[in-house]
Amino acid sequence: MMLTGGGDLAENRARIRDVAARAGVSTATVSNTLNHPEQVAGATRARVEQAMAELNFVKNASARQLRVGRSLMVGAIVLDISNPFYTALIRGIEDRLAADDCTLLICSSDEDPEREARFMRLFAEQGVRGVLLTPSGDPAEPLSYLSRLGIPVVLLDAESDQVSSVSVDHVAGARQAVSHLLDQGHRRIAFMNGPPDLRQCRDRAQGAWEAVLAHGLDPAAVLVSQSLASMSAATGQAGLANLLDQPGPKPTAVFCVNDVVAMGVIRELRSRHLALPQDVAVVGYDDIPFAEELITPLSSVRQPMHDLGWSAVDLLLTEPDQPRHITFTPQLVVRASSRPFGPAGDRTQV
Amino acid sequence: MMLTGGGDLAENRARIRDVAARAGVSTATVSNTLNHPEQVAGATRARVEQAMAELNFVKNASARQLRVGRSLMVGAIVLDISNPFYTALIRGIEDRLAADDCTLLICSSDEDPEREARFMRLFAEQGVRGVLLTPSGDPAEPLSYLSRLGIPVVLLDAESDQVSSVSVDHVAGARQAVSHLLDQGHRRIAFMNGPPDLRQCRDRAQGAWEAVLAHGLDPAAVLVSQSLASMSAATGQAGLANLLDQPGPKPTAVFCVNDVVAMGVIRELRSRHLALPQDVAVVGYDDIPFAEELITPLSSVRQPMHDLGWSAVDLLLTEPDQPRHITFTPQLVVRASSRPFGPAGDRTQV
DNA sequence: TTGTATGCGTTATCAG
DNA sequence: CTGATAACGCATACAA
Q1: Quick one: CA torsion of A151, A154, A160, A162, rounded to 10 degrees?
Q2: In this structure, how many other beta carbons lie within 10 angstroms of the beta carbon of residue A226?
Q3: Distance between first and last Cα of chain A
Q4: Do A150 and B60 lie within an 8 Å CB cutoff?
Q5: Residue B319's pLDDT band (boundaries 50, 70, 90)?
Q6: Chain A contact set for B9 (CB, 8 A)
Q7: What is the dihedral sign for C-alpha B68, A75, B4, A38?
Q8: In chain A, what are the domains?
Q9: Pick from A252, A265, A266: which is nearest to A295 by CA?
């Protein structure tokens, strides 16, 4: 009848029981001191607190969570933690989370639905209080998984009528970017897009299309699109190389699905000795902090990264009866990479 | 005697008990199917697995952890998650962690010892299997806290004879950077350093000093150092502004404690219409992916970010009897920001 | 090969 | 205001 029980890690870790013994009270009182201090007499509370200090008492979150059924953790899945856009988003998330003193379990799906599913399971096993999801593809599957388990979700950059979501009007964002390029006289515009599985990519394609139509031009003639398998500098560079190697008229401008891809594009332009913006203009998306510091400061569509994260958590923790949808409007910031005249180092808005 | 028990979250979540009932076996058999499948007969195992699928069974990590005493999570504290250096490090950490299928709990201390301490407590409460720590100051306190609780630690960019650590030879790194600037003829070099609480900052100061001595010059005359309260673009910019506003001879070169600070410095130079590198040369540290894409490609001391993270986890999970210390040697990458001749857009090494 | 029974550390109920 | 005690879901020793 020898149970091994207890792990090796917590060998000599003080439990509530030990604190109780030392303070000469019951475990219930210790627990109350911890969770309902107002119900404990000042003197006893002091004794208990002293005992806790002396024994280096640390709560056992597993035991607590097992008992109460929910944790103070929130899970978040972002597409790519290396992208400064997502680290800025994470800041917003953490700031709002701190107010409810929850902590964040962040995972980077790297746009891989399988990784995403794995992290989903992890979150479920951990009993997170909720999940913020930037889906790698169709959110239907992860959504039904979480809903079956009763875990609240807020979608980022995706929508569903089942759950709340926070989005950016990417149609408008892309429209601004492409309109701007058309205004500059560009009539052959490459669009380095991400995988069409991502709604934000489809929306940006839509916005680009609309902008061309609004200028009374034929989108099929003006836009030459390329879908990248993932959104990294490397794929952006390879994508543009591929596009430029095709026969036919070359684009005079490139609109990129995000700034990291734009960095790859710029790298490729430079390696071909194409001048930016004289030979080819470039506009990115996200307006990460590095955008304005690049060799040629990059025009970009700014998203309110911090607010996105903040609002998403707010929806999650507030949990309205009806799913709510918040939409932000992005703002094009024009810099030298798409402004043909004036000194390259010249800085303008923002 | 009505116990509320169980939380609201997991209201209708299948437990091992439910799976057992459905499969017509005992809970022990279900548990075995999960953790020791080889001990279960093929037929029963199939029945159990089917039942799990039908019920959407998800393990309860809290209960499991409470029983076995340790979790499969590892905690990591980085100084600043917005800095691409740390996201690259995190990649290395995750890659190694995946091999032991552990998951990562990442927190950004923002160089604040209080935040660091809070996360430390969180890790302890969660019963993490170990901690990777980039300390915000003197590691003595967090170290003794964790050791009291029996939680293994590996230090990053800090050392102690109590625990294993992974470092970079920052003395050598700074020496290379400053030697290079001296070789270019600079005799008045500003050093925008971080807080002296950080060992890596003290080491880099030491390396800078040594480089000047090695050139037979007087460090006090050549180096003008400034300690920034934190290492961000904003503090870097403010620091340089402050320094340039002082009376006396102006520096002709700036060595920055990291690339993000260098970005701020460059911003300030630009706002004063000082040309890079003709008026002032700049060298950064870390060689983040953006360094070579900046307006003027930035010379920087490259650290093996991925390997740093990977090795740290390896030490943590291997847990040698004796603390081990791994030291990497960084490598200066020279780019246009510190090379006075040749066209600015010219790219060389790497 | 499978089933029975027990305890991990905590919290909440209820009685004193 | 405090104490005794039963669960929370799971993994294990041991019996069958």
Answers
A1: 40
A2: 18
A3: 71
A4: no
A5: confident
A6: 69-70, 127, 129, 150-151
A7: positive
A8: 14-56 (1.10.260), 72-168+305-327 (3.40.50.2300), 170-303 (3.40.50.2300)
A9: A266
> Does the nearest atom of strand D lie within 7 Å of A23's Cβ?
no
Closest residue in chain B to residue A273, using alpha carbons only:
B345
Would you call B98 helix, strand, or coil by DSSP? helix
- Token pair 């057992």 is found at B20
Quick check: B233 contacting A, CB < 8 Å? yes
Name chain A contacts of B121, Cβ cutoff 8 Å.
58
According to the model, what pLDDT value does residue A69 have? 87
Whole-number distance in Å between B9 CA and D3 C1': 30
Q: Which of A15, A60, A62 to mutate to test the interface with B (most CBs of B within 10 A)?
A: A62
Evaluate the omega torsion of the peptide bond into residue A289 and state whether it is cis, within 30 degrees of 0. no
List, as ranges, residues 124-183 from B with C-beta within 8 Å of A.
124-127, 129, 148-151
pLDDT tens digit sequence for A125-156: 999 999 999 999 999 999 999 999 999 999 99
pLDDT of residue B6: 34
SS3 B278: coil
Half-sphere exposure of B107 (CA within 13 A, CB side): 30
The C-alpha of A69 sits at a distance from chain B's nearest C-alpha, in angstroms, of 4
Residue–nucleotide distance: A215 CA to D6 C1' (Å): 73
State, as a whole number of angstroms, the distance between the CA of A15 and the C1' of C9: 7
Tell whether the model's pLDDT for residue B345 goes beyond 50: no
Closest CA to B193 of B162, B235, B155, B242: B235
Phi, psi of B309 (to 5 degrees): -65, -45
CA distance B35 to chain A (A): 15
CA A336 to chain CA centroid, nearest Å: 27
What are the pLDDT digits (tens) for B265-294? 999 998 999 998 999 999 999 999 989 888
Residue B45 CA to residue B39 CA, distance in Å, equals 9
Query: Where does the pLDDT of residue A294 fall: very low under 50, low under 70, confident under 90, or very high at 90 and above?
Result: confident
In total, the C-beta contacts within 8 angstroms joining chain A to chain B are 148
Q: Residue A58: list chain B partners with CB under 8 A.
A: 121, 124-125, 149
Whether the upstream peptide bond of residue A277 has omega within 30° of 0, thus cis, is: yes
% of chain A beyond a pLDDT of 70:
94
pLDDT at A341 over 70: no
Contact present, A16 and B153 (Cβ < 8 Å) = no
pLDDT at B8 over 80: no
Strand partners, A331: A302
Neighbour tally for A63: CB within 10 Å: 16
Angle subtended at Cα A93 by Cα A87 and Cα A97, rounded to the nearest 5 degrees: 140
Question: Taking CB atoms and an 8 Å limit, are A88 and B68 in contact across chains?
Answer: no
Residues 20-79 of B with CB under 8 A from A: 56, 58-63, 65-71
Of A6, A63, A150, the CB nearest to B11: A150
Both tokens of B130, joined, read: 């170990």
User: What does the alpha-carbon distance between residue A155 and residue A170 come to, in Å, rounded to a whole number?
Assistant: 15
The letter for the amino acid at B169 is D
Mean pLDDT (chain B, rounded)? 91
Give the nucleotide with minimal C1' distance to the Cα of B125.
Answer: C9
Answer yes or no: is pLDDT of A276 > 70.
yes
Residue A246's pLDDT is 93
**Residue A105 near chain B (CB below 8 Å):** yes
Integer Cα distance of A231 and A192 in angstroms:
9
Task: Report pLDDT digits (tens) over B143-188.
Answer: 999 999 999 999 998 889 899 999 999 999 999 999 999 999 999 9
